[in-house]
Amino acid sequence: MMLQAPKSVVMIRPHHFHPNPETKADNSFQSDGAGTRDTIAKTAREEFDTAVNLLRDAGVVVHDFDDTSDQTPDSVFPNNWFSTHAGGHVAIYPMYAKTRRLERRWDVIELLKRDYRVQDVIDYSGLEQDNLALEGTGAMVLDHIGRVAYVARSNRADPVLLERFCTNFNFEPIAFDARDKNGLDVYHTNVLMTVATDFALVALDMITQSERRKTVRDRLIESDHDVIALSEYQIGEFCGNAFEMSGRTGRILAISARGLNALEPSQIKTIEKSVQIVPLNIPTIETAGGSVRCMIAGIHLAKR
Predict the structure, then answer these.
(1) How many angstroms separate the CA atoms of 269 and 265, rounded?
(2) What's the rounded Cα separation, in Å, for the pair 51 and 165?
(3) pTM for the complete prediction?
(4) Handedness of CA 283, 289, 291, 297 (dihedral sign)
(5) Which regions of the chain are under pLDDT 50?
(6) Cβ within 8 Å of residue 274, ≥6 positions away
(7) Across the chain, what does the average pLDDT equal?
(8) How far is CA 97 from the centre of its chain?
(9) Which domains does the chain carry?
(10) What whole-number distance in Å separates Cα of residue 195 and Cα of residue 198?
(11) What residues form DSSP beta bridges with 255?
Protein backbone atom coordinates (compact mmCIF):
# COMPACT_ATOMS: atom_id res chain seq x y z
CA MET A 1 0.00 0.00 0.00
CA MET A 2 2.78 2.45 0.90
CA LEU A 3 5.51 1.10 -1.38
CA GLN A 4 4.88 3.76 -4.03
CA ALA A 5 3.50 6.38 -1.63
CA PRO A 6 5.91 7.02 1.26
CA LYS A 7 4.70 8.24 4.62
CA SER A 8 7.87 10.26 5.31
CA VAL A 9 9.84 12.68 3.16
CA VAL A 10 12.86 14.99 3.23
CA MET A 11 12.57 18.65 2.18
CA ILE A 12 15.21 21.40 2.15
CA ARG A 13 14.23 24.93 3.21
CA PRO A 14 15.97 27.45 0.94
CA HIS A 15 17.44 30.69 2.25
CA HIS A 16 19.16 31.93 -0.92
CA PHE A 17 16.86 30.58 -3.62
CA HIS A 18 16.95 32.04 -7.13
CA PRO A 19 16.72 30.63 -10.67
CA ASN A 20 20.15 29.16 -11.42
CA PRO A 21 21.86 30.61 -14.53
CA GLU A 22 24.01 27.47 -14.83
CA THR A 23 20.99 25.21 -15.39
CA LYS A 24 19.00 27.50 -17.68
CA ALA A 25 20.64 26.35 -20.92
CA ASP A 26 18.94 22.93 -20.94
CA ASN A 27 15.92 23.66 -18.69
CA SER A 28 13.18 25.23 -20.80
CA PHE A 29 10.86 25.28 -17.77
CA GLN A 30 13.03 27.87 -16.06
CA SER A 31 12.19 31.58 -16.07
CA ASP A 32 13.49 34.78 -14.50
CA GLY A 33 12.15 35.63 -11.07
CA ALA A 34 10.47 38.97 -10.44
CA GLY A 35 11.98 41.31 -7.87
CA THR A 36 15.32 41.54 -6.12
CA ARG A 37 17.25 38.40 -5.25
CA ASP A 38 16.49 38.92 -1.54
CA THR A 39 12.77 39.30 -2.25
CA ILE A 40 12.74 36.17 -4.40
CA ALA A 41 14.55 34.19 -1.69
CA LYS A 42 12.17 35.39 1.03
CA THR A 43 9.07 34.57 -1.03
CA ALA A 44 10.40 31.11 -1.91
CA ARG A 45 11.04 30.39 1.75
CA GLU A 46 7.48 31.43 2.62
CA GLU A 47 6.09 29.19 -0.14
CA PHE A 48 8.21 26.32 1.18
CA ASP A 49 7.00 26.73 4.78
CA THR A 50 3.35 26.87 3.70
CA ALA A 51 3.83 23.71 1.61
CA VAL A 52 5.45 21.85 4.52
CA ASN A 53 2.60 22.83 6.85
CA LEU A 54 -0.01 21.60 4.36
CA LEU A 55 1.74 18.24 4.00
CA ARG A 56 2.04 17.85 7.77
CA ASP A 57 -1.64 18.76 8.15
CA ALA A 58 -2.39 15.89 5.75
CA GLY A 59 -0.40 13.51 7.97
CA VAL A 60 2.88 13.30 6.05
CA VAL A 61 6.05 13.17 8.18
CA VAL A 62 8.33 15.92 6.83
CA HIS A 63 11.99 16.03 7.84
CA ASP A 64 12.95 19.60 6.93
CA PHE A 65 16.53 20.85 6.77
CA ASP A 66 17.70 24.44 6.35
CA ASP A 67 20.14 25.38 3.61
CA THR A 68 21.81 28.70 4.37
CA SER A 69 24.52 28.51 1.69
CA ASP A 70 24.46 31.19 -0.99
CA GLN A 71 26.21 28.77 -3.40
CA THR A 72 23.30 26.34 -3.82
CA PRO A 73 20.28 28.13 -5.35
CA ASP A 74 18.57 24.83 -6.33
CA SER A 75 18.91 23.06 -2.98
CA VAL A 76 15.12 23.12 -2.54
CA PHE A 77 15.08 20.20 -5.03
CA PRO A 78 16.76 17.35 -3.06
CA ASN A 79 15.20 14.49 -5.02
CA ASN A 80 17.96 14.89 -7.61
CA TRP A 81 20.91 13.97 -5.38
CA PHE A 82 19.60 11.03 -3.37
CA SER A 83 16.85 8.40 -3.32
CA THR A 84 15.76 5.68 -0.90
CA HIS A 85 14.44 2.19 -1.57
CA ALA A 86 12.63 -0.63 0.21
CA GLY A 87 14.98 -3.10 1.86
CA GLY A 88 17.14 -0.36 3.34
CA HIS A 89 18.94 0.95 0.27
CA VAL A 90 20.04 4.54 -0.44
CA ALA A 91 21.54 5.95 -3.64
CA ILE A 92 23.56 9.15 -4.01
CA TYR A 93 23.79 10.61 -7.49
CA PRO A 94 26.19 12.57 -9.70
CA MET A 95 24.83 15.95 -10.81
CA TYR A 96 25.25 17.68 -14.16
CA ALA A 97 25.67 21.31 -13.02
CA LYS A 98 28.67 22.07 -10.82
CA THR A 99 26.65 24.28 -8.45
CA ARG A 100 24.21 21.45 -7.88
CA ARG A 101 26.99 19.11 -6.75
CA LEU A 102 27.30 21.25 -3.63
CA GLU A 103 23.77 20.30 -2.50
CA ARG A 104 24.73 16.87 -1.18
CA ARG A 105 24.83 16.86 2.61
CA TRP A 106 25.67 14.04 4.96
CA ASP A 107 23.43 15.22 7.79
CA VAL A 108 20.47 14.07 5.67
CA ILE A 109 22.02 10.63 5.22
CA GLU A 110 22.80 10.45 8.95
CA LEU A 111 19.16 11.25 9.74
CA LEU A 112 18.10 8.37 7.52
CA LYS A 113 20.53 6.02 9.24
CA ARG A 114 19.40 7.13 12.68
CA ASP A 115 15.62 6.97 12.20
CA TYR A 116 15.22 4.35 9.46
CA ARG A 117 16.65 0.95 8.61
CA VAL A 118 19.50 1.61 6.16
CA GLN A 119 21.44 -1.43 4.99
CA ASP A 120 23.71 0.22 2.44
CA VAL A 121 24.47 3.49 0.70
CA ILE A 122 25.60 3.30 -2.93
CA ASP A 123 27.39 6.50 -3.90
CA TYR A 124 27.66 7.19 -7.64
CA SER A 125 28.72 10.83 -7.17
CA GLY A 126 32.41 10.18 -7.89
CA LEU A 127 31.49 9.63 -11.52
CA GLU A 128 31.07 13.39 -11.88
CA GLN A 129 34.85 13.37 -12.46
CA ASP A 130 34.05 11.54 -15.72
CA ASN A 131 31.33 14.08 -16.58
CA LEU A 132 28.58 11.54 -16.00
CA ALA A 133 25.26 12.46 -14.43
CA LEU A 134 22.13 10.64 -13.30
CA GLU A 135 19.98 13.12 -11.41
CA GLY A 136 18.01 10.81 -9.16
CA THR A 137 14.24 10.78 -9.30
CA GLY A 138 14.32 13.81 -11.53
CA ALA A 139 16.05 11.84 -14.28
CA MET A 140 14.17 8.63 -13.40
CA VAL A 141 10.49 8.20 -12.61
CA LEU A 142 10.37 5.00 -10.60
CA ASP A 143 7.54 2.52 -10.35
CA HIS A 144 8.54 0.94 -7.05
CA ILE A 145 5.83 -1.72 -7.37
CA GLY A 146 6.33 -2.71 -11.01
CA ARG A 147 10.14 -2.21 -10.70
CA VAL A 148 10.38 0.01 -13.80
CA ALA A 149 12.56 3.11 -14.22
CA TYR A 150 11.09 5.43 -16.86
CA VAL A 151 13.76 7.76 -18.26
CA ALA A 152 13.72 10.54 -20.83
CA ARG A 153 17.17 10.64 -22.38
CA SER A 154 19.14 13.80 -21.64
CA ASN A 155 22.56 14.98 -20.53
CA ARG A 156 21.27 14.52 -16.96
CA ALA A 157 20.59 10.79 -17.45
CA ASP A 158 23.67 8.92 -18.60
CA PRO A 159 22.69 5.53 -20.13
CA VAL A 160 25.62 3.63 -18.62
CA LEU A 161 24.82 4.95 -15.15
CA LEU A 162 21.15 4.15 -15.68
CA GLU A 163 22.01 0.52 -16.42
CA ARG A 164 24.25 0.36 -13.38
CA PHE A 165 21.57 1.82 -11.12
CA CYS A 166 18.93 -0.58 -12.47
CA THR A 167 21.22 -3.55 -11.91
CA ASN A 168 22.04 -2.47 -8.35
CA PHE A 169 18.45 -1.62 -7.38
CA ASN A 170 16.52 -4.19 -9.41
CA PHE A 171 14.65 -1.94 -11.84
CA GLU A 172 13.97 -2.45 -15.53
CA PRO A 173 15.00 0.64 -17.53
CA ILE A 174 12.59 2.01 -20.13
CA ALA A 175 14.36 4.90 -21.84
CA PHE A 176 12.94 7.12 -24.56
CA ASP A 177 13.45 10.44 -26.31
CA ALA A 178 11.07 13.24 -25.31
CA ARG A 179 11.05 16.73 -26.79
CA ASP A 180 8.93 19.86 -26.66
CA LYS A 181 7.39 21.66 -29.64
CA ASN A 182 10.66 23.55 -30.18
CA GLY A 183 12.63 20.31 -30.46
CA LEU A 184 14.33 20.68 -27.08
CA ASP A 185 14.94 17.58 -24.99
CA VAL A 186 12.89 17.36 -21.78
CA TYR A 187 15.56 17.94 -19.15
CA HIS A 188 14.04 15.74 -16.39
CA THR A 189 11.63 12.85 -16.74
CA ASN A 190 9.67 13.90 -13.67
CA VAL A 191 8.30 17.00 -15.37
CA LEU A 192 6.93 14.69 -18.08
CA MET A 193 5.27 12.03 -15.93
CA THR A 194 4.13 10.95 -12.48
CA VAL A 195 3.62 7.31 -11.50
CA ALA A 196 1.32 6.80 -8.52
CA THR A 197 -0.04 3.56 -7.11
CA ASP A 198 -3.19 3.37 -9.24
CA PHE A 199 -2.68 5.95 -11.99
CA ALA A 200 0.00 7.65 -14.07
CA LEU A 201 0.13 11.17 -15.47
CA VAL A 202 2.19 11.23 -18.67
CA ALA A 203 2.63 13.34 -21.79
CA LEU A 204 2.75 10.47 -24.27
CA ASP A 205 2.68 12.81 -27.28
CA MET A 206 6.02 14.31 -26.24
CA ILE A 207 7.70 10.90 -26.60
CA THR A 208 9.10 11.18 -30.11
CA GLN A 209 9.15 7.53 -31.22
CA SER A 210 5.78 5.84 -31.63
CA GLU A 211 7.05 2.41 -30.59
CA ARG A 212 8.53 3.78 -27.36
CA ARG A 213 5.34 5.73 -26.74
CA LYS A 214 3.41 2.48 -27.05
CA THR A 215 5.89 0.67 -24.77
CA VAL A 216 5.48 3.25 -22.02
CA ARG A 217 1.69 3.19 -22.26
CA ASP A 218 1.52 -0.62 -22.40
CA ARG A 219 3.80 -1.08 -19.39
CA LEU A 220 1.76 1.36 -17.32
CA ILE A 221 -1.46 -0.44 -18.25
CA GLU A 222 0.09 -3.85 -17.56
CA SER A 223 0.98 -2.66 -14.06
CA ASP A 224 -2.68 -1.69 -13.44
CA HIS A 225 -2.34 2.07 -13.83
CA ASP A 226 -5.05 4.31 -15.21
CA VAL A 227 -3.12 6.29 -17.82
CA ILE A 228 -4.01 9.99 -17.78
CA ALA A 229 -2.62 11.59 -20.93
CA LEU A 230 -1.30 15.12 -20.47
CA SER A 231 -0.85 17.74 -23.18
CA GLU A 232 2.35 19.69 -23.71
CA TYR A 233 0.55 22.76 -22.36
CA GLN A 234 -0.27 20.87 -19.16
CA ILE A 235 3.36 19.77 -18.84
CA GLY A 236 4.38 23.43 -19.08
CA GLU A 237 2.00 24.10 -16.18
CA PHE A 238 3.76 21.37 -14.12
CA CYS A 239 0.81 18.94 -14.17
CA GLY A 240 3.29 16.07 -14.59
CA ASN A 241 5.47 17.05 -11.63
CA ALA A 242 3.31 15.65 -8.82
CA PHE A 243 4.05 13.17 -6.02
CA GLU A 244 1.96 10.57 -4.22
CA MET A 245 2.40 10.10 -0.46
CA SER A 246 0.58 8.39 2.38
CA GLY A 247 -1.22 10.73 4.75
CA ARG A 248 -3.23 10.36 7.91
CA THR A 249 -6.39 9.02 6.25
CA GLY A 250 -5.03 7.53 3.03
CA ARG A 251 -2.95 8.42 0.00
CA ILE A 252 -2.59 12.00 -1.18
CA LEU A 253 -1.27 13.58 -4.37
CA ALA A 254 0.73 16.75 -3.87
CA ILE A 255 0.62 18.92 -6.99
CA SER A 256 1.20 22.61 -7.56
CA ALA A 257 -1.85 24.87 -7.56
CA ARG A 258 -0.83 25.94 -11.06
CA GLY A 259 -0.79 22.32 -12.20
CA LEU A 260 -4.14 21.52 -10.62
CA ASN A 261 -5.73 24.50 -12.35
CA ALA A 262 -4.56 23.15 -15.71
CA LEU A 263 -6.05 19.66 -15.28
CA GLU A 264 -9.35 18.75 -16.95
CA PRO A 265 -12.30 17.84 -14.69
CA SER A 266 -12.27 14.28 -16.08
CA GLN A 267 -8.58 13.93 -15.20
CA ILE A 268 -9.19 15.18 -11.68
CA LYS A 269 -12.05 12.71 -11.31
CA THR A 270 -9.76 9.81 -12.23
CA ILE A 271 -7.08 10.98 -9.80
CA GLU A 272 -9.55 11.40 -6.94
CA LYS A 273 -10.71 7.80 -7.25
CA SER A 274 -7.62 6.77 -5.27
CA VAL A 275 -6.08 9.86 -3.65
CA GLN A 276 -6.91 13.16 -2.04
CA ILE A 277 -5.39 16.06 -3.99
CA VAL A 278 -3.32 18.51 -1.94
CA PRO A 279 -2.46 21.62 -4.00
CA LEU A 280 0.66 23.59 -3.08
CA ASN A 281 1.07 27.18 -4.26
CA ILE A 282 4.75 27.64 -5.19
CA PRO A 283 4.96 30.05 -8.16
CA THR A 284 8.31 31.55 -7.10
CA ILE A 285 9.97 28.17 -6.61
CA GLU A 286 8.65 27.10 -10.02
CA THR A 287 10.68 29.83 -11.73
CA ALA A 288 13.70 27.55 -11.20
CA GLY A 289 12.13 25.03 -13.58
CA GLY A 290 10.91 22.47 -11.05
CA SER A 291 7.73 22.03 -9.06
CA VAL A 292 6.26 19.98 -6.24
CA ARG A 293 7.74 16.59 -7.03
CA CYS A 294 11.22 18.08 -7.34
CA MET A 295 10.92 19.50 -3.80
CA ILE A 296 10.17 16.16 -2.16
CA ALA A 297 12.55 13.26 -1.56
CA GLY A 298 10.46 10.27 -0.52
CA ILE A 299 11.67 7.94 2.23
CA HIS A 300 10.95 4.37 1.09
CA LEU A 301 12.58 2.89 4.19
CA ALA A 302 11.25 1.09 7.27
CA LYS A 303 11.26 3.01 10.52
CA ARG A 304 13.60 1.87 13.28
Answers:
(1) 6
(2) 31
(3) 0.96
(4) negative
(5) 1
(6) 196, 197, 198, 199, 251
(7) 95
(8) 17
(9) 8-299 (3.75.10.10)
(10) 8
(11) 279
